[in-house]
Amino acid sequence: MQTATFSSKISRSVRGWLFVWAVLLTAEVTEGQTASPSYDFFESKIRPVLVEHCYECHSADNAEGGLRVDLAATLRRGGEHGPAVVPQQPEASWLLTAVSHTDAELRMPPKGAKLPGAIIADFRKWIEMGAPDPRMEVSVPAETWTGYKAAKSHWAYLPPQMHPVPRVTDLTWARQGIDRFVLSTLEKNGLHPSIDAEPPTLLRRIYFDLIGLPPTPTEAEHFLQMYDAQGLDIAMEWVVDDLLQRPQFGQRWGRHWLDVARYGESSGGESNVSFPYAWRYRDYVINALNADLPYDRFLTEQIAGDLLPYANDSERARLLTATGFLAVGPKNLGENDDQKFLADLVDEQIDSLSRALLANSIACARCHDHKFDPFSMEDYYGLAGIFASSKTYFGTFTSPANNRGGDPLVLPRTRDQRIYHKSLSPVEFEKLKARQHELDIVRQEIKEAQAARWSGQEPKKIFTLRDVLANLWQLGPVEGKLETLDEHGQALPLAMGVLDARIANVPLLLRGEIDRPGSLVPRAFPQALRGSEVSLPVDQSGRLELAHWLTAAHHPLTSRVYVNRVWKHLFGGGLVASVDNFGTTGDKPSHPDLLDTLAVQFVQDGWSTKALIRTLVLSRTYRQASLYRAEDFRADPEGRLLWRMPKRRLSAEAIRDAMLFTSGELDFGAAEASLVATHIGDRPISLIGLDRRLPPDLDGSTHPSVYLPVIRDRLPQVLDLFDFAEPSFVVGDRETTNVPVQALYLLNSPFVQQRAQAFAARLERETSTDTGLVQSAFQWCFNRMPDTNELERALAYLSSQEDDQQLLRVSFCQAMLCTAEFRNLD
User: Fold this and answer.
1) Whole-model pTM?
2) CB-based burial of residue 228 (10 Å sphere; 0-12 exposed, 13-18 middle, 19+ buried)?
3) Beta-carbon-side half-sphere exposure of residue 472 (alpha carbons within 13 Å)
C-alpha cells in the first residue's frame, strides 16, 4: 500500500523519465507480429474491461485528460499524468493506481464502485507480463483497408490448392514429394540439407515424437539389426507402423489436442470450482486418436455430437461426451448476472472454437468489427446465436464458493461404465429428498416475502440476508447431489457437454455491453468465408451445420491449420510459425506450396491423422541431423528453410514419463478417471490444500502424465515448471524456458529422487558389475553406449567411496536423469 501511494505521487519529471524509459524498452506492435498466449490474456482479461469501463471517456471519441486507452501506443503514452502503463512496472503505472483506488485524487472509474479485486489482479499480472497489447494504429485509411478485403487477398482465407512437385537439381536426396518441396526452397537460397541423423538418434526421435517415450535397449537393438539387414527405409517403416498402433500414441497425440482444447478440470478464477466429470472428455480424445477417427468427424462430434444419429447407447454416450470440447473451458462462476454469465460463456466458446480450428479469433469482433481480419460484429453475433441456442452442462452447484450452478450431462447407461460418485441407500435417498422439500418450501416463502415487499405489502415472514444465503447454500449441495442420482438413488453416469436448448437469435451488443442491446442478428457463419448461403434449421441450434461448414473440403483454414499443427509437433516449428494465428497479423508460411499440397492431400486421404504423421516421419526431411553449420546458420538462423532438424527440449509430460519408464515404474494402463473425480469431487479447488488424502504435488501416480489432474492455477509441479500449456487458453505452441528452478526441481524433488532409487535397483538387477551398470544406464537414458571418457569418469565416481555404494549408485542414476541429454531431443 505504501509503495502504491508513493508511486501515485511521483513527480512529473520522474514520470516523464519513466515514459522515455518505457518507450526505449518496448516496441509498438506492428503488422506481421506473431500472436502469443500473452495476447490471449489481454483479449480475455484486459480489453473487455477497458471497453466496458474506460472507452466512454478515454477513446478516439472522447480522450479526457489527453488519455486514450483504445490503442497500445496511446495507453502507454498516457495523458496529463504521464504514462498510464509502464511494462513490467506495475507500481509506476498510474492506470493500476487509478483502478486500485490507492490515490484519493485519482480513482477510476470515477463513477461507481471500485473494480473487483480479481480484475485489479489481472491488470497487475498483465503489466508484469510486459503489458502485451496486439492493438495497433491503422497505417492506411479505413475505407481502403477492411477485413473483407483480407478475405479476398490474404493467403489463409483462399482455398488451398494442390501444387505440382517442383524440379530440383539434386536428384538423389529426396524420398517423396515433401522432400522436393523442401529441397527446392533450399536450392533457391543457396543451402543444402543436412546428412541423415545416426540411426540410434533417429530412433529416439521417432519414439518420443510418436508415443512420448524412449525405446528400450532391446527395441533399439532390434531396430539396428533390421537397419543392417534391410536398410533404413524398411527399418523406419516397420517402427513407425508399430508405434502408430500402440495405445501410447493416443496418449501422446491426445495431449496435443487437449492443449488446443484448453482442457481443464476446474473453473479457474477466484472460486476455482472443480469439474469432476471432465476426465471423460480427456479419455474420449485419447480413444479417438488411437482409433484414427477422421479429423473431420472428430471435429463434428465435438461441436455437435448430440445432434448426430447413433446406433446404440454406447455410441450415444460417446457422442455426448465429445461435446465436452465446448464445456471444459474456464468459467467465472462467481458472476451473479445471468445475462453476463451467458454472454461470457458463449464468448469463450466462440473464441476457443475459432482459435482451435481456424487459428483466428472471431471473439475479437464482440465489441467492434475486426480491423484486419474478415470478421464483423454481425459475424460474431450470428455465431453467438448458435451457441446461445445450446445449453452447456458443466456439473457444479451453488455454494459459498460458487454462485453459478450448472447441471451435469446425463449419459445413457452402458456396460463397464466408470462412475465415481456414490449411490445412496433407499433411506439416505428419501432423507435427501425430504431435505430438498423443506428447503424448497423456505425458498418459496422467501420469494413470496420479496414479492410482498416489492408490492408495498407486509410479508408474512421476515427473512434476513443471512437467511436467504443460508437457504441458497444449503439447497445447492442437496440439489447438486440429487442431480447425480436416478429416481432410485443410484449414481448416474455423468459428463460435461452441450445440448440444444431454446432456439433464438441474439441481439448485437453495442461495444459488447450487456445493457446496450441492438437489433437481433440471424444465426449464421462468418460472411466473408461463408461461400454460398446456408440456411439453418428453425428447430436446431445450427451447431451441426457449423461443423459441416468447418469440415468442408474447400474450407480455407481447417485442414491447413491442422496440418500445420501436426508439422510443428514433428519438426519443432510450423510451416506457419504462428501456429495459433493464421490471420493477417500472423506469420507467412515458409513453404506455402507445400502447406497447401499437404492440406489438400490430407483431405483426399480421408482426414487421417496417422496417415499424415506416417508420411511426414518417413520423409528425408525428417531424417536430417541437428548438426550446426555456421554458414547455413548465418543465412537462416531460425531454421525456417528446414536445412536441419532443430534440437528440442522434451515436453513436461515426456520428461516425467521417461523417468518412470527408465526406472521401470511406468504403469502403461489408463488411469482410474482423475484425482479430481476420485478424491476432490465437486469441491472448490481452494479447499483441497486442507485435504490430507491428496499428494502435496498432485502427482501421486505412476500412470502416464496425460492422466494427471489439470487444475487451473494449481498444476502438478513437474508440469508447471516445464512449461505445460496454460489450460485456460488455446495453446498450439508451448513456450520453452530454461530457468534455475527447473534444475532445483531435478536435484531436490522427491519424485525425481524416488525415480533414481528405482532406476538404481533396476540396473542392479540387470548387471552385477559397475561397468555393466554404467553401460545399461546410458542405453536406457540416451539410447547409446557411453564413450571411453564417459565410462571412465562414471566408474571413477562409483568407486570414489567404499562405505556406501548404494548411495553412490542412486546419485549416479539421479545425475543421469538430470542431464540435458536426457531431457532434450536431437
Assistant:
1) 0.82
2) exposed
3) 17
